[in-house]
Amino acid sequence: MSATQPTLLDDEAAVGAAVAAFRADHDRLLAEIGRRLVGQSEVATAVVSALLAGGHVLLEGVPGLGKTLLVRTAAAAMDLAFSRIQFTPDLMPADVIGTNLIVDDVGGRRFEFQKGPLFAHVVLADEINRATP
Question: Of 56, 80, 104, which residue is a domain's last?
Answer without folding.
Answer: 80
